[in-house]
Design goal:
Blueprint (H helix, E strand, L loop, with lengths): L11 E4 L4 E4 L2 E2 L6 H12 L7 H9 L8 H18 L6 E4 L3 E4 L6
Antiparallel strand pairs: 1-2, 2-3, 4-5
Helix pairs in contact: 1-2, 1-3
């Protein structure tokens, strides 16, 4: 499998071209939804920096971002966290930074 160079050596790895995700070397199946993938991709590109809710909503929903509710965003984040926890229940990858947004915690692979 192709592994993007900037993600080698990390627990969470995304491949934008094939829209695939690996956690600890195990592919996440079934694949993430398009919205889940875009959310994770946006966080991953910021490499540990906080990304605002507004920026994430824009990245995930694009043109339709105007009508997105807080509840819809929170539900998307919750489902994505649940998917990641199914494979790696011992680490929280998506961290909430109160009043600021979300941050990806993607530690080096063991």
């Amino acid at each position: 499998a192709f592994i993007p160079p900037h993600t080698r050596g990390y627990r969470l790895r995304l491949d934008e071209r094939s829209r695939r995700l690996w956690l600890n070397g195990k592919e996440v199946l079934p694949p993430l939804s398009a919205q889940q993938f875009r959310l994770l991709q946006t966080l991953e590109k910021q490499q540990g920096e906080v990304v605002s809710r507004e920026e994430l909503i824009q990245a995930v929903w694009g043109e339709e971002a105007f009508g997105v509710t807080e509840q819809a965003f929170d539900a998307l984040v919750r489902r994505l966290r649940e998917r990641l926890a199914e494979i790696d229940p011992h680490h929280h990858y998506i961290l909430t930074v109160r009043g600021h947004g979300l941050r990806l915690d993607n530690p080096p692979a063991e």
